[in-house]
Amino acid sequence: MRVFWLGLALLFSATVWAAPPSISARAWIVIDQASGHVLADSQADLPLPPASLTQMMTAYVLLDDLRKNKLSLGELITVPPAATQVDGARLFLTAGEKVSVDTLLQGMLVESAGDAVITLVTAAEGNETAFVARMNREARRLGMTKTRFLNATGLSEPGHESSARDLALLGRALARDFPDRMGFFLQKTLQYKGATYYNGNRLLWRDDTVIGLKAGRTPQAGYCTAALAQRGDQRRLAVVLNARTDVLRAQDALKLLNFGFENFDSVLLYRARQAVKSVRIYRGDSPSISMGFEQDFHMLVPRGSATRVKAEIVTRQPVVAPIRTGQNLGVLRLTLDGQPFGDYPMVALHNVGVAGIFGRVWDSLQLFFAR
After folding, report:
1. 3-state DSSP call for residue 22?
2. How many CB atoms lie within 10 A of CB 73?
């Protein structure tokens, strides 16, 4: 292998990873929003009832429908009789009433209103069963391997479950894929028909850096929350499942967010498909090939480390055509204080075909004598 030094020194400083705080909830996780790196977790893959955190997936599917113009915020939809029979939190809608999609989304995301949920999913897919099938398809696509949705509201029933890790994946996807709709998730109150509804996410009042996402509770699920916060250019997302009380749910989530912000820095090193290095290619119809990352590459480091992170690119030599886009060509190797910090695969950013006969012969000679 040939080694190409980037001469990169990154300005961070801290020497050790910090110990996570004491958390009382049964399962929890905190991640870096930008990279998805897990900062700390406990029983994060344990399947548990997610309560109305389920509605984050309901919202994900509905927001996709809005983006595709299958629904519009100002559209008035008719409340079906089934919506008036749902258990749990409600806006007390009446059958046949016409309500805007905008108001119903607010009712779902502020009050967890089941009647708003059923009205929305019926308008989007005809019935709740068909809509839930879409929810499960999206869950599989996002990699939510411990999740199985049986309804769109989050009411507990046997087999309706998710995990802290899966819900963190979902929360991250919501913020990433629908940044222009995040206002729904930080709305504190809703006025409807003379009544005021208050968001169950206590952190929206307690910490003004919190920008969502959802709180929920059922007797079986306990108190649950997915909390996203932004401080400066950093974002962290915490999920807490099966806390014993509302107060403990908020305390646990805030502890996890503070831990994430106080101990880690997430830094964007390279944009998706940015050419990080060009390397010589043999027998190709191009003399070189660019390598980089298919997604934005964020590096997570202990907060405050100063000039201690170094990087090198290690390529597999020789590189011989043909090469396909996405083919692994080497690694970005990071070290902190001279100790291994991580190897990250780098891929070809474009195709390179095979050269003509003369080019292949010439490069074959070069390869022979290079040995």
Report:
1. coil
2. 12
CATH number for 300 = 2.60.410.10
Are 175 and 214 part of one and the same domain? yes
- Does the residue 317 lie in any domain? yes
DSSP string, 49-67: --GGGHHHHHHHHHHHHHH
Query: Is residue 152 in some structural domain?
Result: yes
Into how many domains does the chain fold?
2
Residue 264's DSSP bridge partners are 302
Q: Are residues 176 and 55 in the same domain?
A: yes
Q: Which domain holds residue 351?
A: 2-11+269-370
User: CA 237 to CA 230: how far, in whole Å?
Assistant: 9
- Nearest of 282, 290, 279, 280 to residue 355 by alpha carbon: 282
The reply to whether 69 and 111 lie within a common domain is yes
Structure tokens at 296: 């934005």
In order of 163, 170, 203, 302, the CA distances from 224 in angstroms are 11, 15, 12, 28
The pLDDT tens digits for 320-351 are 878 899 989 999 998 888 888 889 899 999 99
Please indicate, yes or no, whether residues 182 and 112 belong to a single structural domain of this protein.
yes
Average pLDDT over residues 99-120: 97
pTM: 0.86
Judge if 47 and 167 occupy the same domain: yes
Task: Give domain status of residue 20, yes or no.
Answer: no
Residue type, 216: G
What pLDDT is stored for residue 319 in this prediction? 81
Burial of 169 (0-12, 13-18, 19+ CB in 10 A): buried
Residue 37 has pLDDT above 60, yes or no: yes
Question: Residues 206-233: pLDDT tens digits?
Answer: 999 999 999 999 999 999 999 999 999 9
| DSSP state, residue 183 | G
Phi, psi angles (nearest 5°) of residue 192:
-150, 125
Is 45 contained in some domain?
Answer: yes
Nearest to 123 by CA among 106, 107, 139, 99: 99
Say which DSSP state 112 is in.
Answer: -
For residues 225 and 286, membership in a common domain is answered with: no
Cα gap 101→105, rounded to integer Å: 6
Tell me the residue type at 244.
R
